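We treat protein structure as text, and this decision shapes the records that our systems exchange. The tokens are whole numbers drawn from a learned vocabulary of local backbone shapes. One such record is reproduced below, unchanged from the form in which we store it:
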Amino acid sequence: MATESAAPVQIDGHSVSDIPTIVRRLRQTFATGRTRSIEWRKEQLRALERLISENEAAIATALGQDLGRKPFEAWLVDTAITAAEAAYAAKHVGRWVRRKYRLLELSQLPGRGWVEYEPYGTVLIIGAWNFPFNLTLGPLVGAIAAGNTVVLKPSEISPASSRLMAELVPRYLDPSAIEVVEGDGAVSQELIAQGFD
């Protein structure tokens, strides 16, 4: 009697078994040092702002389908706030990453001390269903500003918003550093099992 092997679950053109490959590729991108560049971070943050501002109508439609949200409410709580956050981060990221010198204790002189901010590596953002753009792309602003590579996992409870993010993010942002993976709780568990930074 022949046994049938279960076909891998498909998510946004990927199978669940592709998740380790996706994470490995993002880690390789991080290892190149490209995401540490202040210019790269600014470019990605400006692109994220454009993603939101150029697609306000599509975002409002997706939020209307998922949550019954009116266009003004969608603009107020999801698009305007997130676009403004991306613009603010693009403007200030250069100052945020500068080395900050600190005074040392007398016993440590004539040494010098400082705080230097370093990216973590590859991070996972699991979005919430109730404010799908703000609570998925908002944390993405911080992850990009910090110089990380990112896996975005939008909530499956907001499917229209999730599909729209999966469509827009690779068009606007660096696909070798920022990847959208759609799916249910099993996909989230597989992502968490990858041991993000």
In short: The longest helix spans residues 71-96.
